[in-house]
Design a protein that fits this description.
The chain is mostly helical. The protein has helices at 11-16, 18-22, 28-40, 42-62, 69-83, 93-118. The chain has six helices and no strands. Helix 3 (28-40) crosses helix 4. The chain starts with 10 loop residues before the first helix and ends in a 16-residue tail after the last helix. Residues 121-134 have low confidence and may be disordered.
Length: 134
């Protein structure tokens, strides 16, 4: 995409690195170039505003979920490989994430059952710990 106006930094470069800019993951010099470009280019400013709003919405809706340490470690390892220019093994990261999430839920359910057993509750207990036989 290009707005048609000449800029020191091309629109396509800004849009290719927009998330790095939004996440403050680029060198200060590049950030300054992007800020100048976004200030003078309304299509890029509009795209920046939209992506910033989406990022805030995702944080508000999903920002409270804890990411399993194992998954975080795997993702960060893959990011480092990509940044270093190394090839990334072909793996289904989504499937791995779902498996890790399921394992965490299973572990949490086991912990809950242990708490109920320790407190004297039984699997057949209804509200307030009363069983159907009482």
């Amino acid at each position: 995409m290009s707005c048609g106006d000449p800029h020191e930094t091309d629109c396509s470069e800004v849009l290719d690195h927009l998330y790095e800019f939004l996440d403050h993951e680029m060198p200060d010099g590049d950030c300054a170039k992007f800020e100048v470009h976004i200030d003078e280019c309304s299509p890029c400013l509009e795209k920046y505003g939209l992506e910033q709003a989406v990022k805030k919405l995702v944080k508000r809706c999903c920002g409270h979920d804890d990411v399993p340490a194992d998954l975080r470690s795997k993702v960060m390892g893959r990011i480092e490989l990509i940044r270093a220019g190394q090839s990334v093994p072909d793996q289904d990261v989504v499937a791995e994430a779902r498996a890790a999430e399921a394992a965490a839920r299973t572990q949490g359910a086991r912990s809950d059952r242990g708490v109920r057993s320790a407190s004297g509750g039984s699997a057949g207990a209804g509200p307030l710990g009363a069983t159907a036989q009482e």
